[in-house]
Design brief:
about 220 residues, Glutaredoxin, 5-stranded mixed sheet, 7 helices, 9 strands, globular
């Protein structure tokens, strides 16, 4: 459970809203308050596993978490999918970062992550945008085609849970938040906040994430 929805993203200097969600790798609940007083935390909030950009970023984040740990910073990922779906996926593709499941996107709402309205104007704008945020495609492709093309590259078959997640979420943006030991947000990165739709699917590089952590020291 989380606090109420916000109309805009949580900003640096604000207290991060607490939540309690089921862990993917063990039978327990993980609360954000459990990190307070223990260590700084890099929190990454993702869409469901139907999103190939998120799957790729989760794999990257697992490696990044080891580098963060050496700097005294813990990591936590929130994935917007059903718990059973997440457990099946990560059993086959183990991750080095702790993960919790939030199929209803309650964390997205509590942290104020935008959910753009998909109207005729948005669809028309997307038709003229070509992206290749993970660098896995031979060349940039139209934004709306990119997820399907990446599924082919990954050999990923959408599950029924994935379909349910997409129906619930639509186009939900993701974000990353660096919290200090007191649970105060010190750095935030919101998808599409600087580039608009051309930034869809991007995830910060290791250098960007580590730079944010070093700036906190």
């Amino acid at each position: 459970m989380t606090q109420n929805a916000r109309s805009s993203p949580v900003q640096p200097g604000e207290k991060a809203p607490d939540f309690s969600l089921p862990a993917v790798h063990q039978e327990s609940l993980v609360s954000l308050s459990g990190y307070v007083g223990r260590a700084p935390l890099l929190l990454a909030i993702f869409r469901g596993l139907y999103c190939p950009f998120c799957r790729r970023a989760l794999a990257q984040f697992g490696g990044t978490s080891e580098k963060l740990r050496k700097l005294g910073v813990e990591s936590l990922a929130v994935v917007a999918t059903e718990l059973d779906n997440a457990r099946i996926y990560f059993k086959l593709r183990p991750s080095k970062v702790p993960i919790v499941a939030d199929p209803e996107c309650s964390t997205h709402r509590a942290f104020g992550l935008p959910k753009p309205v998909i109207d005729e104007q948005t669809v028309k704008a997307a038709e003229n945008i070509r992206i290749n945020p993970t660098g896995e495609l031979a060349q940039p492709v139209p934004l709306m085609q990119a997820p399907g093309e990446l599924d082919k590259v990954h050999g990923y078959q959408q599950t029924e849970a994935d379909h349910r997640d997409f129906e619930r979420q639509g186009i939900q943006l993701k974000g990353q938040f660096l919290l200090d030991r007191d649970g105060i947000v010190r750095w935030a990165n919101i998808e599409c906040s600087t580039e608009g739709l051309p930034g869809f699917g991007k995830f910060p590089t290791d250098d960007e994430l580590l730079g944010a952590v070093r700036a906190l020291s």
